[in-house]
Amino acid sequence: MNVEIRTETGAAAPRFAFWDAWAGERRTLARVTPSAAPVPFRSSAAQTGLIAVTYLMWGGFFLVVPLVTVHFVDELGWAAASVGLVLGLRQLTQQGLTVFGGAWADRIGPKPLILAGCLIRTLGFAWMGFADALPVLLAASLLAGIGGGLFDAPKSAAITAVTRPEHRARMFSLVSISGNLGMVTGPLIGAWLIHLGFRTAAVSAGSVYLLAFALLAVTLPHLRPAAERGSGFAGLRAAALDHRFRRFTLVLVGYFLLSTQINVAVTLKAVALAGPGATGPLYGLSAGLAVVLQYPLLRLVERRWRTRTALVAAVLAVGLSLGLMGFAATFPQLLACVALYSLGTMLVYPTQQALTARLAPAGMTGSYFGFSAISLGLGGAVGNLVGGLLTDAGKRAGLPLLPWLTLMLVGIVTALGLRWALRGVPTQAQLEGEEGL
């Protein structure tokens, strides 16, 4: 989807200077084509809308989902396994549908799918507030998962379409920062709303997606798919047959296995060192560092390393940090390791997304982003299981370092695998015929 940022009428999309003061540089909206000199980055209305909508989506999600267990298990006395099953099926539904959501975006454009996904998730989250039986909660959760599956990959495709290639890693970084802000503020708002009742919190979370719908309806132009590429699931077939991209996607399963450990092995270690209250500082440090450092860190790395080199180094840092956690004897020492872990994870997302966009042929961006969701789905599912199994195995064997050294080994192997999988990937300069990433 290498298109100029224009509306269906052909008029240039409006520009916002929302990020100018914060990023400290002047930026200009430009056609997504090579030029003789570097073009500064200035956020358009479409880009600013996507950044803001990401904040709303993450904020709305974390406003209600953490409360599901609290309400149905602690307050209503439901079995924890039942609620866990519901949340797991929602995740599976969303990741499974994301694969196809990207392909549909290549066929009809990303905007209709993102808007439909927002509306469906509005209904799903609001319906949760009225669930009084397990089948009702399950149906509402599946509806919310369908909504997420419709907008996940198309949103990434839209970001790619409205951003110049050399600015994509930076744009994905801003989107990630916005999501982390939502992850921080969502639970705080949810904790306040739960005093008014779970129904109020659930309906409020749904309303956030309604606001996201309205914002994108105004700011995001309709991005026409390439006619010759937008039929059926040709894009998914192309991604699956693209041996380089297939290797890239499968190797990334190892990274997503590691990234889930913040919710499993790392959380269990934190609670063992400092009690249940340790989860607040743990997640606060991780998300807070991403909000403050992700953008400037990415800018620093961009000036010194190629994108693929930065991705390999970031995955290696995540693996090494997990290995060091095994030696942490106090909670502050663990937090120091979590800081290194967070520095790695905050670089992986924008670089991985930028490389996915670079590897995707014109008109197949959505399909490639959808296919890439396989790594998150497999890695996340396996990671949750493996983290718990390794922790239990280490305790039984009297080898507390077992899970951490194993995870570090996975990180090293994954980093080497990425180096192998990305051999021969052209730089942005080679693609554009000018100095780039």
How many runs of DSSP E, i.e. beta strands?
A: 0
- CATH class category of the largest domain: Mainly Alpha
Stretches with pLDDT under 50, minimum 5 residues: 1-36, 227-231, 433-437
CATH topology of the largest domain, by name, is Growth Hormone, Chain: A
Strand content: under 5%
Organism: Deinococcus hopiensis KR-140
Keywords: Cell membrane, Membrane, Transmembrane, Transmembrane helix, Transport
GO molecular function: transmembrane transporter activity
InterPro entries: MFS, MFS_dom, MFS_trans_sf, MFS_Transporters
Describe, in plain words, how this protein is organized in 3D.
- Helix content is 75%, strand content 0%.
- The protein folds into 2 domains: 43-221, MFS general substrate transporter like domains (Growth Hormone, Chain: A, Up-down Bundle); 235-426, MFS general substrate transporter like domains (Growth Hormone, Chain: A).
- Helix 2 packs antiparallel against helix 7 (198-219).
- It is an all-alpha fold.
- The protein has helices spanning 20-23, 45-75, 80-108, 110-128, 134-161, 168-193, 198-219, 234-241, 243-259, 265-274, 279-304, 307-325, 331-359, 365-397, 402-421, 428-432.
- It comes from Deinococcus hopiensis KR-140.
- It holds the Pfam family MFS_1.
- The chain crosses the membrane at residues 50-70, 136-153, 174-194, 206-227, 248-268, 280-298, 310-327, 369-390, 402-422.
